[in-house]
Fold this sequence. Notes:
By secondary structure, the protein is mostly beta strands. The protein has one domain (8-318): Neuraminidase (6 Propeller). The chain has strands at 8-14, 20-38, 43-50, 58-62, 68-73, 80-85, 93-94, 101-108, 114-121, 128-133, 140-144, 151-153, 161-167, 172-178, 185-192, 205-209, 215-220, 225-230, 237-240, 247-252, 258-265, 268-275, 280-286, 291-296, 302-318. The strands form 6 sheets. Strands 1, 2, 3, 24 and 25 form a 5-stranded antiparallel sheet that branches. The protein has a 4-stranded antiparallel sheet with strand order 4-5-6-7, with no helix packed on it. A 4-stranded antiparallel sheet has the order 8-9-10-11, with no helix packed on it.
Amino acid sequence: MTDWSGYSIHNLSATADGKRLAFLRSTHHASALVGDLDDNGNRLANSRRLMIDDNINIPLAWTPDSREVILSSQRAATRQLYRQALDRGSAAQPITSSSGMSFYMARLSPDGAWWVVEGEPVGPGKMALYRIPIGGGAFQLLFPVEGLTQYWCTNRTANFCVLGRPDPGRHELAITSFDPLSASQKDLIRIPLEPGSDAGVGLDYAWQISPDGTWIAIAKRHGKTIRLVPLKGNQARTIFVKGCSDLVDLNWAVNSRSFFVSALGPGGATLLHVDLEGSAQPIWLQPQTTSFWGFSSPDARHLAISSESRETSAWMITNF
């Protein structure tokens, strides 16, 4: 019926007599950007794209020296991990190169020696977490997970990682700590959620552990608050982000004292630097972006940004 390439087709609807078919035709764009932070994180300058091509490129982490960004990109049959320096004109270098495995996420281990990555075999096989040496090399199995799962690692001092498992039946997000070397796991905390909501990846909530390991920050998407759930004896807090009512995502700053928060508004998508009192400083605006987030380099001098957009038009086919 069509011979288009480079588009996705969805929301099909046919008339009762079967003579007309309406649908949406969309093109998805995902770009990785980097910029320089100034004024204690309140200003972003010199933003530019990494991996200048038409692939869906997603920034995931920084190298310990803050000189390279780790990205995922699908340039062939499987999605692989790459590292790219901040210098203009630099080329992305592969970290993984497995034709039998796709990799979707990567976090730096607390000791800075490993990448903790989420991978899925081509064909039969379960998604799992693996570790890869920081310089690249063979991946080593940690443990299987049930589908795409959100996880984070703290800094070297706190020295642990966490994995989130949604429990829709109990309206909770179960947080488990794990050791990226021994793969040992331990139940850490359960966070209550609103009934009917889901904390699965990309769904109703954004959450992250603070780099110092003392808080879990969690925000219900399209709301205006960030909950701080204590892990080490503090009192729970709720932060009202001032002047914003449509939060999309959040990432802690490296000092565990503020966030980089993405939000939607009448002017488009805005990236905010938000302190623990809820004061928000806009640092980046993109009118047509639909999904995005930003996270700081370890030295707090740079910000990596994932920016996604979609071009959509309505079509109709007749007499088919």
